[in-house]
Amino acid sequence: MSFGKRLHQERLRRHLSQEALAEAIGVSSKSISRWEQDQAIPQGYARLELCRFFQLRPEDLFAGLEEQTPPAGLWSVPYSRNPFFTGRQDLLQALHDHLNQQHTMALTQSLAISGLGGIGKTQIALEYAYQYREDYRFIFWTSAATRETLQADLAALAELLLLPERNEQDQNKILQAVRKWFATHDEWLWILDNADDVMVVHDLLPDERPGHLLLTSRAQAWGSLAQRIEVETMGLTEATLFLLRRARLLASHAFLDAVDEKDLAAAEAIVLEVDFLPLALDQAGAYIEEVGCSLSEYLALYRAHRKELLLRRGYLSTDHPEPVATTWSLSFEKVEQANPAAADLLRLCSFLEPDTIPEELIVKGSVHFSMALQRIAKDLFLLNEAIEELRKFSLIQRSPQTRTLRVHRLVQAVLQQTMTSEEQHRLAEQVVRATNMVFPEQIDIAIWPDCRRYLPQAQACSVLIQDYALTFNDAASLLFHTGIYLHDNGLYDPAESLFQQALYIRELHLGSKHPDVAQVLNYQAALYYLQGKYEQTERIYQQALHIWEESQGPEHPDVARPLIGLGCLFVRQGKYEQAEAPFQRALHIRELHLGSEHPDVAQVLNEQAGLYDEQGKYEQAEQLYQQALHIWEKHLGPEHPNVAQVLNNLAVIYYQQGKYEQAERLFHRALQIWEESLGPSHPQIAQVLNNLSFIFREQGKYEQGERLSRRALHIWEGHLGPQHPDVAFALKNLAVILDKQGKYKQAEPLHLRALHIREQALGPDNPVVTSSLMGLANFYQKQGKYMQAEPLYERALYIREQRLSTQHPAVADTLHDFAILREAQGKNQEAASLYQRALAIREQAFGPEHPTTEMTRAAYSALQQIMDRHDNTSHESNTT
């Protein structure tokens, strides 16, 4: 029996209406109706009240509830209702009115509560959630303070919603699933707290928002993402009421007329001293309550500490007003007296990323901390005592579910500013060393979840390393390994920054010729290759190669790494003769040290096969691809990303040979592996999407091809930037698909943009550029613009003959298409000669039955018949 039916049965057994039951447990009758129809699930207080009212155990009343999926309703707000919330009713009503305007635009259903830090934005959003909870089936709360915290919270939502993708290793797949859920469901309220950076949230928000989006932010501009409502400071009466209630000196239902004149004066003086700021008032009230002092005593204590604290922080700080700093400093003194280890813990946390501090970082990294912290890290009881002391003053929050701690950013700033520069430097160094201990050194897809957990701390450490000029080896190691993780996840810009920091430190301490320096250089070169910065790529690969050869010897295993990189670079640049030697040398080194069946050997085989593919040596390429595939499947398993890479490459070979069914099957398998392991937005996904669209294009499935090509374009532009050479692949392919559909006005600018990108990135004579030249020439030829097409064909033919050899299949492609133009121009003899050359090359490369060979043969034969008829007609005329 479902919970709804059980609730309905219990209510009728007691002869109650829905209204009567609702009144008895303090909810609306609408909630009772939803619960009985299994459209929503009672949460928290409502569950307790139902059990109390019916005098049933939770396991009896709610039996089997957890197995009902998906949930018909959720309350996912991590904070209890603030019993001291005071005033703000006009603002809450305005929020409700704005969100419920009768419009369909997402903008009208999205609001940003904007204002100064500490103004009360979070508490207003929290009160809105509680006050209007009956208007929604789903209420979610996420932290948008950083990209990482938002991603972590959205992953947690996937768990709550029981989404099928919730267990995926790649976070991007989880995020897209949550985004899709928001776009396809209604009656939800989603609160994004601390969304101070528009760029953190903009691409994670659903385009369609059937529910209500509420953000809290210090940002003033939100553009089209949300309307903004400014939060002002509290008035004197409202602020004084709040302080007295928070200090538990006034009942929640009482007003100022019940307050003694002396206390009222002191309370108003405190309000004025803290400049009406709600966060400062809350902290002051908490201090008064915990310590048990009077209002006048607190005021005197505050005024006694004011000058000293203002001198330590700066008088005109707008982000962290001095009353807040003063209040927290007073609280910290109490912690210091009660539990010095707790004070050390808070000081340490003031240098960590504040929202998600993994508790195991403190435990595992304790060897680098103070003796007091080392003691509590080894004893969970002592650690709990320290955290308990900090929680008394709301200086820290703890999440047992995620095993993380949370510290307010203002607390961090105040604490740091109470320290000497030597203390700050020491703690920053300790945090970096501890984070390096927990961040994985071997970056593999199997441990990406660990990397994701520590990534916010590692990125915070990169700032500490820069700010405090930390140059020890652990700092370089943390930067390097974090950079590898970001690189492997397609986050190239932040990875580049970390590699540069790591390189500087290693060169500083080890010298520019050390093997560890070459290690960073090799990854940096690989990153530049992916970004299309080919001059920098070659220079840095050569630098890494020279270091390893000089320090380790010419046949050391590490030497193979830059050799492979150089080979790939030369292939991309069309320098095929130069590419052969580094590949052969790398293969020799790896087989010498690892044997012929090692996965690292398969990497060389895969890249060398790519060289043969580009040269039109398809049999040799296929043989090496199959060999690499066998090794990787055997040693890494059939679902490894490396397997997907070779499947994609092998599919390209089949596509070029006209084996479309085989190619499509392999492309789909590669896509599935990559999407499951890397997520739907990784740059490698774009590669196989673009390739798969070729198949659909050749099969006349233009809509499917266009959709895949646009998705590939979106991914590449997002990760690599709009001027990267890979973007040109998608642009050119999309242009051809549009061209085939007769969408010429849309196609031409894409052709031109693709050509421009390639010329700028690769140079005007690169073989890759000829692909865009041919695409544009065919586009003009198809429209009868022969004068525009002719020089493009001539230029493409010249480059391909010079750079690829006169017998390369790509030369045959140019000859065939150029022949079509000449035939259209009535230059049949020249067209026949071009067809003849193209046919000879294709027969040699592909055999007589290949589709492209047959196509050229048919075109040549048709032209010969036309020419023969013309010759016969001319002969008869001359005879007559």
Characterization of the model:
It contains 41 helices and 9 strands. By secondary structure, the chain is mostly helical. The protein is globular, with a radius of gyration of 34 Å. The model is unreliable at 104-108 and 306-323 (pLDDT under 50). Helix 39 packs antiparallel against helix 40. Among the domains are: 3-68, 434 Repressor (Amino-terminal Domain), CATH 1.10.260; 76-230, P-loop containing nucleotide triphosphate hydrolases (Rossmann fold, 3-Layer(aba) Sandwich); 236-313, no CATH class; 339-418; 788-880, Serine Threonine Protein Phosphatase 5, Tetratricopeptide repeat (Alpha Horseshoe), CATH 1.25.40.10. The longest helix is centred in the last third of the chain and has 29 residues, at 851-879.
Question: How are the SSEs ordered, and which strands pair?
Answer:
Blueprint: H1 3-13, H2 18-25, H3 29-36, H4 44-54, H5 58-61, E1 74-76, H6 89-99, E2 110-114, H7 121-131, E3 138-143, H8 147-160, H9 171-184, E4 188-193, H10 198-201, E5 212-217, E6 227-230, H11 236-246, H12 261-273, H13 278-291, H14 295-313, H15 322-338, H16 340-349, E7 357-358, H17 359-364, H18 371-377, H19 380-392, E8 397-399, E9 404-406, H20 409-417, H21 421-438, H22 448-467, H23 473-488, H24 492-510, H25 515-530, H26 534-552, H27 560-572, H28 576-594, H29 599-614, H30 618-636, H31 641-656, H32 660-678, H33 683-698, H34 702-720, H35 725-740, H36 744-762, H37 767-782, H38 786-804, H39 809-824, H40 828-846, H41 851-879
Parallel strand pairs: 1-3, 2-5, 2-6, 3-4, 4-5
Antiparallel strand pairs: 7-9, 8-9
